[in-house]
Write a structure and sequence with these properties.
Layout lengths: L1 H20 L1 E11 L5 E6 L4 E6 L4 E11 L3 H8 L2 E8 L2 E8 L14 E10 L3 E6 L4 E3 L6 E5 L4 E6 L3 E5 L4 E6 L3 E5 L4 E6 L3 E5 L4 E6 L3 E5 L4 E5 L7 E5 L4 E5 L5 E7 L4 E2 L5 E6 L5 E6 L5 E6 L4 E5 L1
Parallel strand pairs: 2-6, 2-8, 3-7, 3-9, 8-10, 9-11, 10-12, 11-13, 12-14, 13-15, 14-16, 15-17, 16-18, 17-19, 18-20, 19-21, 20-26, 21-27, 22-26, 23-27
Antiparallel strand pairs: 1-4, 4-7, 5-6, 22-25, 24-25
């Protein structure tokens, strides 16, 4: 008897994955006429957020894709009763949000929420966005406005953004093609990659690499577990600090740039071939090198606890 009971239980468990992954999709769409320069706020739990832009658009078009863990249409209808889906226009812009009533539905599989909503929104080229999701990716195209983005478990990918940027994820990578305002990017477990930054730039990761092709302003870049690679264009506009606890630091500067160098590593040497430097402390090839480059200027502070430091000119 017990043997048959165990077989029955095992058979039921074998069916759980198929039922757990069964999804029914519903799509809800709304369009709002807006003026350029407004604000879009999007929040969802477990879903993705994608922002697309149109140079000719005079409206905000919201598409909500509801992914329902259900095996029948009737079951899907029941689960949707617990979903709060908001898509509305307010004085300052448009709000789109999806939240599932917690504690109202228990599933044997443990998946939460039973309804996941992905948002795809098309906005005018000149618009501002505030985006938040608890577990999906966030993607924003080229935008003439400011961006605030937060996800707890996905990647953040941003195009060319003219306004200020504040974006962070707890478990993914962050990529920015171009930032023309102030930039602040962070991740607890991934890499940060930036193509070009014009404004003050602050990058921080606890477990990945940082790479920025070109920055025209001040740069703060810190990682606890990877390499830092940066290109600084033109003269330093202010003090720049780059550091890692577990990798290398590589910086490229203009040959004529004037700055004060303070580079130190506990796990390698400092290579500064090509610099015209008046040395105050240490020397090339040693684990410490500080001095005035081309007569001095703002501070370039470089630190590594476990790798080499390399400064090159172009």
């Amino acid at each position: 008897m017990k043997f048959h009971t165990l077989l029955f239980a095992a058979g039921m468990l074998a069916l759980i994955p198929a039922a757990a992954h069964a999804k029914i999709e519903r799509i809800v769409e709304k369009t709002f006429n807006v003026q350029p320069g407004g604000l879009l706020k999007v929040e969802t739990h477990g879903g993705e957020i994608r922002i697309e832009t149109s140079a000719t658009a005079t409206s905000v078009h919201v598409v909500a894709r509801e992914k329902i863990r259900a095996s029948t249409e009737a079951e899907a209808d029941e689960r949707l009763k617990k979903l709060s889906l908001v898509m509305e226009q307010r004085p300052d812009g448009v709000v789109a949000s999806a939240a599932y009533e917690r504690g109202s539905s228990f599933t044997i599989t443990g998946f939460w929420p039973p309804v996941q909503v992905d948002f795809t929104v098309t906005v005018p080229a000149a618009y501002n966005v505030e985006l938040k999701t608890s577990g999906g990716d966030v993607t924003v195209g080229d935008l003439q406005g400011r961006v605030t983005a937060r996800t707890s478990g996905g990647d953040i990918t941003l195009g060319s953004i003219t306004g200020d940027i504040r974006a962070g994820t707890s478990g993914g990578n962050v990529r920015l093609a171009e930032g023309r305002g102030a930039v602040k990017l962070g991740t607890s477990g991934g890499n940060i990659t930036v193509g070009h930054a014009v404004g003050p730039t602050d990058l921080d990761t606890s477990g990945g690499d940082i790479e920025i092709d070109s920055v025209e302003n001040t740069l703060q870049a810190s990682t606890s577990g990877g390499d830092v690679t940066a290109g600084i264009a033109g003269s330093l506009r202010g003090d720049c600090r780059l550091g890692t606890s577990g990798g290398r630091v590589r910086v490229t500067v203009d040959k004529t740039a004037r700055f004060a160098l303070d580079a130190s590593t506990s796990g390698g040497g400092v290579d500064a071939a090509g610099l015209t430097i008046t040395i105050d402390k240490g020397g090339a090839g040693h684990n410490r090198l500080s001095g005035q480059v081309n007569g001095g200027g703002p501070l370039l502070h470089l630190r590594s606890s476990g790798g080499e430091i390399e400064i090159r000119t172009r």
